Amino acid sequence: MTRPPVTLDDLDRKIVAALIANARTSFAEIGAAIGLSAPAVKRRVDRMREAGVITGFTATVLPNALGWRTEAYVEVYCDSAAPPRRLAEVVRDYPEIIAAMTVTGGADALLHIRATDIEHFERVLERIRAEPFIRKTVSQIVLSHLIANSPEAGASPGTPADTQ
Amino acid sequence: MTRPPVTLDDLDRKIVAALIANARTSFAEIGAAIGLSAPAVKRRVDRMREAGVITGFTATVLPNALGWRTEAYVEVYCDSAAPPRRLAEVVRDYPEIIAAMTVTGGADALLHIRATDIEHFERVLERIRAEPFIRKTVSQIVLSHLIANSPEAGASPGTPADTQ
DNA sequence: ATTGAAAGACCGACCAA
DNA sequence: TTGGTCGGTCTTTCAAT
Q1: Are B80 and A122 in contact (CB under 8 A)?
Q2: Chain centroid offset of residue B88 CA
Q3: Which Gene Ontology cellular component annotation is one that this UniProt entry carries (chains A, B) (predicted)?
Q4: How far lies A78's CA from each of A62, A92, A101, A106, B116, in Å?
Q5: At a CB cut-off of 8 Å and minimum separation 6, what does B3 contact?
Q6: Nearest chain A alpha carbon to B49
Q7: Bridge pairing between strands A134-145 and A54-61
Q8: Which residues of B, range 70-99, sit inside 8 Å of A by Cβ?
Q9: Which CATH number fits domain B63-143: 3.40.50.10260, 3.20.20.70, 3.40.50.2000, 3.30.70.920?
Q10: d(CA B19, CA A60)
Q11: Distance from CA of B89 to the nearest CA of A (A)
């Protein structure tokens, strides 16, 4: 999975910025903005996808609108014997966990979780706490977002119907 | 900014799922998959954008590849007099803050921050700590992600060149 | 929601610097 | 190697049904 070192020039960065702003912008339009032809833009995009710089194109949605009304960050404290590897396997089994990472500080890992409601969140949390090597969890439930169009405010695990 | 209540039917949810999976999927292809014509799909997408269910289409990139090599979550403790409103204004001035929310628990808010490196992060943190109503901060620096293709693993504040 | 037609986007092949 | 041009094909988009 390790890829060759990628060097992006200024044109590449402008193309990426344009696609982050609107992933459906046509290559011709991007090209017009930076002084390149549409096929030239496409070649650069293909190269960056190949290199793994661009990993995909997605729609951002309001999770609320899809029924994900509860969001939380959960600090996880593990038994000292448990390797991060083990945690990674567990975490993948929960569609409600939309991000998980190891962190500095007292906790071993931080989970970003979306659930349909508090009841759903409680069920997920209970399942997580029942995992053998997890010692304790500390939850911070999100009350409100302070940035409207943060990229990750639109992150959602799919549709509730798919995962419940 | 308050919008009319939106009701999504099953077709709408399938369209959204398809666009989350790949925002550049053609309407014709989505239509073929769910038994609708391309114009019918387009009108539903337009309606959902209008209603604010779909907020945009973006490219997901590896922040590392763009030079964002340091990521952290920072708990913020405020003076009890400071309203969340005030915090929202401040937070918008930092391009490095890619998400900010009020949370339950001891902290008043949680910030999700990306910086180019530790030095950059330290500068950002010092500026934040210098804000008048902030009493203390607790940082958790992200060591490694446990989920490969988490939607928000690709969230990045732009290009370092734009913001530094 | 579908059809049909015009405008536009995509994508490969080929050529020039 | 990187960009430009060209042509065939698919997609988008708007009207009318």
Answers
A1: no
A2: 15
A3: cytosol
A4: 33, 17, 13, 10, 30
A5: B51, B52
A6: A61
A7: unpaired
A8: 71, 73, 84, 87-88, 91-92, 97-99
A9: 3.30.70.920
A10: 9
A11: 8
For domain A10-51, is the CATH number 1.10.530.10?
no
First to last CA, chain B: 32
Residue ranges matching CATH 3.30.70.920 in chain B: 63-143
d(C-alpha B99, C-alpha B92), whole Å: 10
B128: left (phi over 0), alpha (psi -120 to 50) or beta: alpha
pTM of the model: 0.91
DSSP sequence for chain B: ---------HHHHHHHHHHHH-TT--HHHHHHHHT--HHHHHHHHHHHHHHTSEEEEEEEE-HHHHT--EEEEEEEEE-TT--HHHHHHHHTT-TTEEEEEEESSS-SEEEEEEESSHHHHHHHHHHHHTSTTEEEEEEEEEEEESSTT-GGGG---S-HHHH-
pLDDT of A1: 46
| Cβ contact B136:B77 at 8 Å | yes
Quickly list DSSP for B8-25. --HHHHHHHHHHHH-TT-
Are B34 and B44 in contact, with CB atoms under 8 Å apart? no
Mean pLDDT of successive 10-residue stretches along chain B, which has 164 residues: 66 95 96 95 96 94 92 94 85 94 96 97 97 95 89 80 66
Residue ranges in chain A whose pLDDT is less than 50: 1-2
Considering chain A, tell me which residue range(s) the CATH 1.10.10.10 domain(s) occupy.
Answer: 10-51
